[in-house]
Amino acid sequence: MSEKRNLSQMLHSDLVVKSASTRSAAIALATLFFLGNIGVAVSAAQAHAVPPGFSFLYLIGVAWAIAWWVLADCRERNIPSSIDHGWLVFFAWPLVLPYHLIKTRGLKGCGVLATLVGLFVVAYLTALATFFLLTR
């Protein structure tokens, strides 16, 4: 079994960025949550529509950060993945992320998922407070 993993790692070693970690990806995701929500709050406070490019980049950024986090988590846990695993996570993250968390952690994965949802809620509440401060 370990020989199979070593072969997989050798075949994909040039495709994997070794410096990526789950902590860096989580920081990127948190940053995107806060910047995206505060950007929408500032736009709404100034009575402007949110630019479509901003929304598009926000959605792409969140999908990218989640895919980065899942791939880094797979590397840290020595879970072999296919070449296109990142693309699958990128495009289907609302389905793949809960599956990955429960598959790798069992019921503790629900706690990690709740933490990510909580992080988004905190970012949203911060943006809401920003909106009310700007519209006073």
Note down, in words, how this protein is organized.
The protein is mainly alpha-helical and 136 residues long. The longest helix is centred in the C-terminal third of the chain and has 27 residues, at 108-134. 15% of the residues are buried. 79% of the residues lie in helices and 0% in strands. It has one domain (20-134). It has 5 helices and no strands.
Summarize the structure.
The protein is mainly α and 136 residues long.
Question: What descriptive keywords fit this protein?
Answer:
single chain, 136 residues, 5 helices, mainly alpha, elongated
Largest sheet: none
What's the helix count?
5
Q: Which overall shape is indicated by the principal axes computed on the Cα atoms?
A: elongated
Structural class: mainly alpha
Give the low-pLDDT segments: 10-19
User: Which strand-content bin applies to the residues?
Assistant: under 5%
Distance, first to last CA: 63 Å
Number of strands: 0
Mean pLDDT: 87
SSE run: HHHHH
Total number of domains: 1
Give the helix level as a range of percent: over 70%
Radius of gyration: 18 Å
What is the topology?
Layout lengths: L1 H11 L9 H24 L6 H25 L8 H21 L2 H27 L2
